[in-house]
Amino acid sequence: MHTQPSLHATSGVKLRKPLAIRQHASKQKGAVTLLVALTLPILIGAAALAVDMAHLHVVRNELQNDADAAALAGAHVLYNSTTGSTDWSLAQTQAQAAIALNRATGIQLTEGRVQTGYWNLTGSATSLQGLPMTPTVNDAPAVQVTVRKAEGQNSGPVRTFLAGILGTSTVPLQATAVAGVTSPGRASLTFPVAMSQCMYQKFWNMSAQPPAPVNDPKTGKPYVFKIGSLYHYDNCDSGQWTALNFSGKGANTIDQILAHDQELFDPPPPMLSIGDTVFMDSGSKTSLYKAVEQCIKAKEYPCNTVVMPVLDQVVAGTNATITGFACLKILGAVGGNQKFIEVQMSNTCPPIPSGGVGPNYGVVSPPSLFR
User: Fold this and answer.
1) What is the maximum alpha-carbon separation in the chain?
2) Has residue 233 been placed in a domain?
């Protein structure tokens, strides 16, 4: 009896695909090969562009950091707190020297362009205003630094990795920074006396360039004048004790401020801004004039040169609005029947913790980047 052989049991027999299927697969392989050949340059170009764009972004950031550092280096010496003047030459020299301390693409920079002038803080002028010029209240002294990697500058333009395939082997890059000093719109104050706006106007020449104290024609130096309580002096010759923005009021808190009591300053009080109000303490507080004398003689935190708020008016027992921050030299204090602090207007206060922008009453903020 014969049995029909099973298909599964058949060995040594290969099943072949029909001819039509084989021809179709061959055509597909050919199409894919053609597609890859056509798109490969695009893919390589995209990869080259991505790699080089990332590299150029890194180098651009390096140049910007270099320009920022050099501009700030110049701005740090732009204002001479000893003379209260602007030292354009020193600022330019310092910024130029700082350029050579920085690198881009691992190579030390050797040159850059440094300019000095005024930067308009309101944006009405969008570029550095060169010297000589007559600045407005919104123009701040500034240093501008531009560094470039280009033909003939700082080892030439930036070399690309893969973009040369597309015909771009180098790319020039540059960065610009502007830094300077401003008069603050807010400040951390540590001298607990406020003076009236009308007193400030008598002894400060806002129209001078830069603004400066009014000089006594007899001495050729800033006027020496007294700040005393409204109880003893007219409004335009008066000031008043104030606890500023510290918690608490009265003679004890003010005495702690003069002594720079660490418990009172930890944590530091928030800054006061132009437009804020402060409370004017009442009473003459005779004991505090002696505390001022002790503060002047102190080795740490002396009261020789201080920043004082200028108020729209000074009336004991009321709030008054801050219009600016003035720099004063404290020469002495007298208690007894007279009760006054002897002072001179000044523009030699060192930069203080501050921010914002306000009128130039002789106080400057630490240097900062404008652009």
Assistant:
1) 146
2) yes
pLDDT tens track for 49-104: 777 788 889 999 999 999 999 999 999 999 888 888 899 999 999 999 999 999 99
Q: Are 326 and 183 in contact, with CB atoms under 8 Å apart?
A: no
* Per-residue pLDDT, 10: 47
**Residue 95: CB atoms within 10 Å:** 30
Q: Report the DSSP pairing between strands 305-311 and 193-196.
A: parallel
- 144 and 208 part of one domain: no
In a domain, 22, yes or no: no
Collapse the DSSP code of 1 into the 3-class scheme (helix H, G, I; strand E, B; otherwise coil) and give the result.
coil
In angstroms, rounded to a whole number, what is the distance separating the alpha carbons of residues 254 and 241? 8
Please return the burial class of 199, using the count of CB atoms within 10 Å of its CB with bins 0-12, 13-18 and 19+: buried
- Preceding omega of 213 cis (within 30 degrees of 0): no
Q: Which of 180, 201, 225 is the last residue of a domain?
A: 180
| Closest to 364 (Cα-Cα) out of 179, 201, 180 | 180
Query: 7 in a domain, yes or no?
Result: no
pLDDT tens profile 327-353? 999 999 988 777 889 999 999 898 888
| Residues 133 and 280 placed together within one structural domain of the fold | no
* Domain tally, the chain: 2
